[in-house]
Structures are given as structure tokens and as C-alpha cells.
Amino acid sequence: MEVNEELSRELEEAIRRSNTVIYRRGQALLAEMGISNPQFNTLLALYEFGPLTMGDLGKHLFTACSTATDLADRLERDGLVERIRDSKDRRIVRMHLLTKGKKMVEVIMNERYRFLEEVLAGYTADEHRLILESLKHLIDRVERTDKTYPVELEAVRNIKKKLILSPS
């Protein structure tokens, strides 16, 4: 199939609209649970990867170590995580997910799974596999293309300057 501008626009819109609904529902869940998106991402990283140092957590969240520390402070105050010094090297502190934090992640993820089960209920098993294979292939292509063709920030800056400086 030839990739053309119309197909790209339709695909972008489909992804954006799906993402908007999933994001909105996710935000409602997080608000109900009393945590922010960055806090949930912190809990999820600990759930998926186990105890992490602030530096490793920052890498997983794509944030500065100071930001990861701020997140840890709030989550620790709420009884969702705890920081434990390494027994072999006291300079190393790892954040550990507590039972309350683990249960919070599971409640949120189970609600996400339940929603997707509803969305996919009308599809056959073969269609499920096809959707999953297609999405995995798309993710792979998106990640590879992103590395090969980074965002052209200089071009965006130039357009932005023209928009700001040009009279309306």
C-alpha cells in the first residue's frame, strides 16, 4: 500500500482520538485515586522494574533526579513507597513499592484492561491478534523512525518566530 498524505492524516487522527479518550479516562482514574500522572508513572516503573535508585527512576521517567526525588517525597508521605538504603553501600538509596502502592497500580491497570476488553469485545480472536501485531509493528517503526529522523526543532523555531513577528 502506498503511503500518502491522506492516509497519514487519517491515521494520525485515529491515534490522536483514541489516545484522547484513553488519556481522559486515565486522568479521571488518577484523580479518583488522588495521584498525578507523574506519580502514577513512578509507581508503575517500580511495579514493572522493582526497586530503583533516584537516578534510575529519573531515567525511566525521563526526568531530572531532583524531580524523581520530589515525586518520591510525596509518594512516601502517602505510604505508597519507601526509600531503603543499600545494605552493602549506604550511599545508595532505592525506592521500594509498598503494598498500598502496588494495590493502587493494580486497581488502575485492571480498570484500563477492563475498558480495553469492552472495546475489543466485538472482535474475533484473529482480529485481536491482527490488531496487536499491527500495533507492535507500528510501535517498532515509530521508534526506529524517531531515532533516524528527530524532531526538526530549528525549523519549528523559525516558523514560530515568523508567526510571532508577523503582523496579524
TrEMBL record:
GO terms for molecular function: DNA binding; DNA-binding transcription factor activity. Residues 4-144 form the HTH marR-type domain. SMART domains: HTH_MARR. Keywords: DNA-binding, Transcription, Transcription regulation. It holds the Pfam family MarR. Gene3D superfamilies: Winged helix-like DNA-binding domain superfamily/Winged helix DNA-binding domain (1.10.10.10). InterPro entries: HTH_MarR-typ (IPR000835), WH-like_DNA-bd_sf (IPR036388), WH_DNA-bd_sf (IPR036390). This is HTH marR-type domain-containing protein.
